[in-house]
Design goal:
heterodimer, A: Rossmann fold, 6-stranded mixed β-sheet, 9 helices, 22% strand, B: 259 residues, binds adenosine-5'-diphosphate, binds magnesium ion
Chain lengths: 284, 259
């Protein structure tokens, strides 16, 4: 919040070209060569501490187009913090954060805005603006940039509402009038208004009943498969994780202690991972 | 003493001052940069100004009446009851009007702003704004600070006027003074510079109140409880700052104008 906003005129956005230093890291345990065209997010050796408290102590993560990475971990381990760093809302103390090859650490405001334009975020509680209608929430970013006509915005709002299986009339409701599941859908609709290439979800099914959770999981998958977006889903919910995830990472004590695909999750002998899965499986 | 030996509360206070200064700087820059968000500004002017009129009217009328009551009792002892208008006018325009208006607005509007922005902070709406490329300083802070700077002088004029009317009511009921006697006394007690200082103060107070409230709102942590804490702190801090800046501005004006 109180980070100074560097203003540097980036004519033709030269900073938006991939960093020449950047070479996408191969995903551990996956056999193909990393493809710079497909690599959407790279976290390299990211460190962050709040005061004395070290939250992230050397995080490496990568996500490709058309892929969903699930990040699991106990409460307060720094899962949301990772998403905030990717959005450029928080600056790490050290490390590099590449969004499609552009390093956003120490990036100026213009580059950040440009990079954020390619991302949609579904916040934990939805983070809908209370004082605006659903329609105004959805069109917020488009109105701010002022590049779209009113008819175009109207059309997009209805298109995105139908994408999340909500009727057009919902746009006239206030966020307070929505159920938990509808709120989440509206939040997803708002996140995809700008047709982002990356979508981040912070505990998308927490607090929802199993049926509603399932519909949210389906939406996450639909978005990945239809629009080929790269997604990161932060969740406690192992059932949801296995439904939406292509790859899984466990965050513990500031490190990624486990990383692998669904098969690796089921057959892991990592003790913490096992306990985490068994504990969650038995409660749901 | 080096920084390493500073105690935690001192450190956090210093950090607070530093962050507050950064926010003030960014707000100042935002003032001269687009977008203007004039609709948000008008909404805030309505909330801060128009909706404060009732509270300001009540404050004014009772303040004027009690001032006139006290001075009527004291001044009649010396046969100087003609000076009631002078006393009421001067104290209201110079001090009580600006300060009491500011304190009332801080209680009513400062708390509202801190609560609103604070709950936006804990519900991640501020993060959502930023993630969508909107600067919360421009979108939330600027309209509120502008509204404070514009509306507080207007509210103060209203308080001043109503307080003087309140004084007139008492001078008429208790001392049977005519309207012209009273108003002549009021005018004779005022310097031209009083009008200036009486309006310069609320501009500064409007800035202080809205700035403190926005700052406390934006720095809210700790969920719903945190919002309550921020709200209280915003009112306490801005009230104290209003009284402190009032003292220093009065001191400055006395140096400049000689009275
Ligand atoms: N702005 C902040 N200042 C200080 N500590 C913070 C801040 N944001 C988060 N934390 C702390 O960092 C840790 C990780 O937070 P978070 O990423 O929200 O965890 P979670 O994994 O539950 O999403 C928590 O212990 C939290 O208290
Ligand atoms: Mg979290």
């Amino acid at each position: 919040m109180f980070r100074s906003r560097r203003k540097r005129k980036a004519i033709g956005h030269p900073d938006l070209h991939p960093d020449p230093q950047w070479a996408p890291r191969a995903v551990p345990g996956r056999d193909r060569e990393p493809d710079p065209e497909n690599r959407m997010i790279d976290l390299e050796d990211v460190h962050l501490a709040f005061g004395e408290k070290v939250i992230l102590d050397g995080i490496w993560l990568e996500v490709d187009r058309g892929e969903t990475l699930v990040v699991m971990g106990g409460s307060g381990t720094g899962k949301s913090t990772i998403l905030r760093i990717i959005l450029g809302l928080l600056e790490p103390d050290a490390g590099r954060v590449y969004v499609h090859g552009v390093n956003i650490v120490h990036a100026n405001q213009e580059v950040l805005d440009e990079v954020r334009g390619q991302m949609g975020m579904v916040f934990q509680g939805g983070a809908l603006f209370d004082s605006l209608t659903v329609g105004e929430n959805l069109s917020f970013r488009l109105h701010e940039t002022g590049e779209h006509s009113d008819e175009e915005i109207e059309r997009l709002v209805e298109e995105k509402l139908s994408f999340v299986d909500l009727e057009p009339r919902v746009k006239n409701l206030m966020p307070a009038e929505l159920s938990g599941g509808m709120r989440k859908r509206v939040a997803i609709a708002r996140a995809v208004m700008g047709s982002p290439r990356i979508v981040l979800y912070d505990e998308p099914t927490t607090g929802l009943d199993p049926i509603t959770s399932e519909t949210i999981n389906e939406l996450i998958n639909k978005l990945r498969d239809q629009q080929n977006v790269a997604s990161i889903v932060v969740t406690h919910d192992i059932g949801s994780a296995l439904t939406v995830g292509n790859r899984f990472a466990m965050l513990k004590d500031g490190h990624i202690t486990f990383e692998g695909d669904a098969h690796a999750v089921r057959t892991t002998d990592d003790e913490y991972m096992r306990t985490f899965i068994d504990a969650r499986m038995s409660t749901t | 003493m080096t920084t390493a030996t500073l105690s935690r509360p001192v450190k956090s206070a210093l950090l607070g001052v530093q962050n507050m200064s950064i926010l003030v700087g960014r707000t100042a820059v935002a003032m001269v940069r687009p977008p203007l968000y004039w609709r948000d500004t008008f909404v805030q002017m309505d909330v801060l100004g128009v909706q404060s009129l009732v509270i300001v009217t009540l404050t004014g009328i009772f303040t004027g009446m009690v001032l006139a009551l006290q001075s009527a009792v004291q001044l009649s002892k010396f046969g100087a009851s003609l000076f009631v208008g002078q006393l009421v006018g001067a104290s209201v325009v110079r001090e009580l009007g600006p300060v009491l208006t500011a304190l009332m607005v801080s209680g009513r509007v400062g708390s509202g702003i801190a609560a609103e922005i604070g709950s936006m902070r804990v519900n991640e709406q501020i993060d959502a704004l930023e993630a969508m490329g909107t600067d919360p300083v421009k979108k939330l802070v600027k309209p509120r600070v502008l509204a404070g700077i514009i509306m507080l002088p207007i509210l103060t004029i209203a308080t001043d006027f109503i307080a003087i009317i309140g004084g007139q009511l008492i001078s008429w009921l208790m001392l049977h003074q005519s309207s012209s006697t009273y108003w002549n006394a009021v005018w004779s007690g005022l310097y031209l510079s009083d009008i200036f200082t009486g309006l310069a103060k609320p501009v500064v107070f409007g800035f202080v109140i809205t700035m403190v409230a926005c700052y406390r709102g934006l720095t809210t942590t700790g969920g719903t409880e945190g919002v309550g804490r921020s709200t209280t702190q915003a009112v306490v801090l801005s009230s104290v700052l209003v009284l402190a800046t009032d003292f220093f501005m009065t001191k400055l004006f006395i140096e400049v104008f000689g009275h």
